[in-house]
Amino acid sequence: MLATPPDFDVLIVGAGISGIGMAAHMEMKAPHHSYAIVERRDNLGGTWDLFRYPGIRSDSDMHTLGFDFEPWRHEKSIADAPAILEYLNRIVDERDIRRHIRYGHKVISADFRDDEARWHVEIELKDGSRTHITANFLYLGSGYYDYDEPYDPGFDFGEFEGQVIHPQFWPENLDYEGRKVVVVGSGATAVTIVPSMAEKAAKVTMLQRTPTWMFSRPAKDGIANFLRKVLPEKLAYKITRKKNIWMQDYAFKTARDKPEKVKDTLWKKIEKALGPGFDKDTFSPPYNPWEQRLCLVPDADLFEAMKAGKAEVVTGHIERFEKGGVRLTSGEFLEADIIITATGLKLAVAGKIAVSLNGEPVNFHERFYYKGCMFSNLPNLAVVFGYLNASWTLRADINSDFVCRVLNHMRATGTDLATPVLTPEAEAAIVEDDVFDFSSGYIQRGKHIMPRNSIEYPWRLNQEYVVDRKRMAEDPVDDGILTFTRAGANAQSADEQLEAAE
Fold first, then answer.
1. How many domains does the chain have?
2. pLDDT of residue 485
3. Residues 325 and 431 placed together within one structural domain of the fold
């Protein structure tokens, strides 16, 4: 046994969906382990509290973006940020999680020391002072993008005298009523902002360099709402969740196997919303559906705004920003009082925390994912990077459950180090795979910092939830790769474990 225990068994970084989900799973499945959640901001919710732009909402249905253990009760399954925050706040209150959250705690660095079996975590407080927390296990629910700095495409706004706003840093009480707005970008953020701002603005133009595949669906799930009326709440949620998981999986696989068929389906839905005279080129990307994430248009709100003349979509390249608007290379001039740069996010690994192992910096791009949850030869660390082709929370749930199984196995065996061991010989035999088979700009820009990926389990971040869920729940924790050892006199370091495995 170690001379002194760490401050916590588990330190959870981030009080968003991932962190709250881990805490809830621990309360249910690993209740004898102590934990704390550190959150750099003053509120919980992560993305759903940070972003304040008009209309912010989920682009996944809440029966899969919600947790497996907590039914979604709202009538709308495509939910806005306030409804999502209400859901998260109810969970932390009903499950006694709130008292474990420490706000204004920004994690700067985390060093794992084998001989102590604990993370030494340095934290910056709001007043600039530093504090120190130790934990046996570190769970990173810190998201996937840079909270401090969005992607900057390098625009020179030249003579433009109006307001320029990035959605990640939306100003309070922005007055855009009766004003002309140009939203640069064609992703989920732009598709959300345009119809919402169009309600008050004189006109909103979405300026896209290339089109994006869009699909419209009702914000309310009729089947889900019917089931909630006739069945117990948890059963209705379980059935709806299973239905939607199957539909997500089917839609993705169909898009990959029969892209032309899916294109025709998407165009027909747009034609139904806009009428037979719609400009097909505006909605015809140069890639197949689901090579990038599809943009959801709930209740056809973008198309309705276009039909009403309150919004338009223009395809073109920016030549320069001028007084009063944007000049395109085609010569077309788009008038603007406000320019919104919905140009995307910057990927970040491990919340930009300086992670080290026995004082040596950890370069995640040199390590392989282990079951999409841990990393090769790095003890007692788990992360969440959600699905690109399904809801984020699906992975958050299975990773949380898996880590609880790991924690319980450690307690049952009296071990305090859990390390996915990858020997040099085994690593040399791995056939690598593209970590992300997606062409989205933010994905391509960030791939150089991402961990490595194998074509086969377990050294893989997979994109097939149905397979992952079964394997994460049913495969033995002690699989001969994830090794469990003790710290102290009889312990093996990660290097010694490698030598023993060779």
1. 2
2. 96
3. no
Tell me the pTM. 0.93
Nearest CA to 196 out of 51, 2, 18 is that of 51
**Alpha-carbon distances of 11 from 133, 413, 417, rounded to whole Å:** 9, 21, 15
User: 301 and 405: one domain?
Assistant: no
Contacts 24+ apart (CB under 8 A), 316-324: 316/207, 316/209, 317/209, 318/155, 318/184, 318/207, 320/156, 320/158, 321/155, 321/156, 321/157, 321/158, 321/159, 321/160, 322/158, 322/159, 322/160, 323/159, 323/160, 323/161, 324/160, 324/161, 324/162
CB 135 within 8 Å of CB 40: no
Residue showing tokens 């296990």: 137
Tell me what the pLDDT averaged over the chain comes to: 92
Among the candidates 277, 309, 341, a domain finishes at 341
Lowest mean pLDDT among 135-149, 180-194, 422-436, 437-451: 437-451
Tell me: do 122 and 175 sit in the same domain. Answer: no
**Shared domain check, 479 and 362:** yes
331/205 same-domain check: yes
Task: Give the rounded percent of residues in the chain with a pLDDT score beyond 70.
Answer: 94
pLDDT digits (tens, 9 = 90+) for 158-203: 899 999 999 999 999 899 999 999 999 999 999 999 999 999 999 9
Radius of gyration in angstroms for the set of CA atoms belonging to the chain, rounded to a whole number: 24
Give the CATH number of the domain where residue 267 resides: 3.50.50.60
DSSP lists the bridge partners of residue 145 as 347
Question: Is residue 497 over pLDDT 80?
Answer: no
Amino acid identity of residue 73, one-letter, is R
Distances (CA, A) of 251 to 63, 222, 257: 17, 19, 10
Sequence-separated (6 or more) residues with CB below 8 Å from residue 351: 13, 14, 107, 140, 142, 143
3-state DSSP assignment of residue 248: helix
What's the pLDDT at 2? 56
Q: What element of type H or E holds 307?
A: helix 301-307
More confident site: 145 or 226: 226
Over the stretch 310-356, which tens digit does the pLDDT of each residue have?
A: 999 999 999 999 999 999 999 999 999 999 999 888 888 888 999 99
Residue type, 199: E
Q: Could you list the residue range(s) of the whole structural domain that residue 34 is in?
A: 8-147+346-501
Tokens standing for residue 378: 């790095």
Helix (H, G, I), strand (E, B) or coil at 314: strand
